[in-house]
Design goal:
189 residues; alpha+beta; Nucleoside Triphosphate Pyrophosphohydrolase; four-stranded mixed β-sheet; 11 strands
Length: 189
């Protein structure tokens, strides 16, 4: 199998806009966004409490102009130069939900929107949870934490969408990976 080179591969990357949080770049005719902080990596945390309630977060997202339902998530390397996927996931889980993980496990990584951004995300499963705070985020994030019984989570999400919430499409992969590894084998409990 041969792989053809794309015409943009030989073009220099130019910065069209450099903001506090985002940059807009162009390479050839292709425009894309990148984060101005961190290393372009993010984590999404898949977690269920000891009572088997899945942790979801709700917050207003300016680009959509709506409240969203997501799994806890955050940037790697944002204000923490020695961050790893695991340390970022552990920190964000506490900040956003008030739950601390005894174990965090990186399941897979990949691009979030390959045609628009160079950001990559790691799915991280957090287990052995214990409550250590209230959550809600930092710096005015205004996060509402939802603990939803695992068996009711898909129906709850569909109901939230009917109510007008935007749903992060990664939720469905996260629900699947509560019980399975990316290759389909059972997750360790």
């Amino acid at each position: 199998m041969t792989q053809e080179r794309h015409e943009a591969e030989d073009q220099p990357i130019e910065t069209l806009y450099d903001g506090e949080w985002m940059r807009l770049k162009r390479r050839g005719r292709w425009e894309f966004a990148e984060r101005a902080h961190g290393n372009g990596m993010a984590v999404i945390i898949i977690a269920a409490t000891p009572e088997d309630n899945v942790l979801f977060v709700e917050q207003y997202r300016v680009p959509l102009g709506q409240r969203t339902i997501e799994m806890p998530a955050g940037l790697v390397g944002d204000h923490h130069s020695h961050d790893t996927f695991e340390s970022a996931a552990a920190r964000e889980l506490i900040e956003e939900t008030g739950w601390e993980a005894g174990k965090v496990e990186v399941l897979l990584t990949g691009p979030t929107s390959a045609g628009m951004s160079n950001e990559r995300i790691a799915f991280v499963r957090a287990t052995q949870l214990r409550r250590v705070g209230n959550g809600g985020g930092v710096d005015g994030e205004g996060i509402t934490v939802h603990e939803v019984p695992r068996t009711q989570a898909p129906a709850w999400l569909v109901q939230k969408q009917r109510e007008g919430y935007e749903l992060d499409m990664k939720l469905w992969a996260g629900l699947w990976m509560l019980e399975r590894n990316p290759d389909g084998s059972p997750a360790e409990t």
